């Protein structure tokens, strides 16, 4: 189980002892994780919405590559069940 606390100081931990501190130091990836965990409504989010929120300064191809890389890193750190996709 992953524990994410976003009020006050950011705390990110795993019940199985995995070290998630390096992930917490990656600001944009952590922001993406927080958004996916706390956004209402819960569930799936459109990629184009995420691109506009997190990578508005780059063209669509680079933004998609950045999102894919961020999701890859998050899945590796959190486990396959950490990020749900279709």
Task: Summarize the structure in words.
With 86 residues, this protein is mainly alpha-helical. The chain is 50% helix and 9% strand. It contains 4 helices and 2 strands; from the N terminus they run ββαααα. The chain has helices spanning 21-24, 27-38, 47-54, 60-78, and strands at residues 2-5, 11-14. Strands 1-2 form a two-stranded antiparallel sheet. Strand 1 (2-5) and strand 2 (11-14) form a beta hairpin. Helix 2 (27-38) packs across helix 4 (60-78) and helix 3 (47-54) packs across helix 4 (60-78). It is globular, with a radius of gyration of 13 Å. It starts with a strand and ends in an 8-residue tail after the last helix. The model has no long low-confidence stretch (mean pLDDT 88).
Summarize the topology.
Blueprint (H helix, E strand, L loop, with lengths): L1 E4 L5 E4 L6 H4 L2 H12 L8 H8 L5 H19 L8
Antiparallel strand pairs: 1-2
Gross geometry: globular
Structural class: mainly alpha
Q: Beta fraction of the residues?
A: 5-15%
Overall strand count? 2
Mean pLDDT: 88
Please state how the strands of the largest beta sheet are arranged side by side: 1-2
Largest sheet: 2 strands, antiparallel
Rounded Rg: 13 Å
| Oligomer category | single chain
Poorly predicted tracts of residues: none
N-to-C SSE series?
A: EEHHHH
Q: Please report the distance between the alpha carbons of the first and last residues.
A: 21 Å
DSSP summary: helix tally: 4
Helix content: 40-55%
């Amino acid at each position: 189980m992953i524990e994410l606390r976003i009020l006050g100081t950011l705390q990110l931990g795993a019940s199985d002892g995995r070290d998630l501190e390096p992930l917490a130091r990656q600001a944009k990836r952590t922001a993406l994780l927080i958004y996916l965990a706390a956004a209402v409504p819960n569930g799936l989010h459109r990629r184009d919405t995420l691109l506009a929120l997190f990578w508005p300064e780059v063209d669509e191809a680079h933004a998609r590559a950045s999102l894919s890389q961020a999701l890859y890193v998050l899945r590796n750190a959190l486990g396959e069940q950490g990020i749900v996709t279709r």
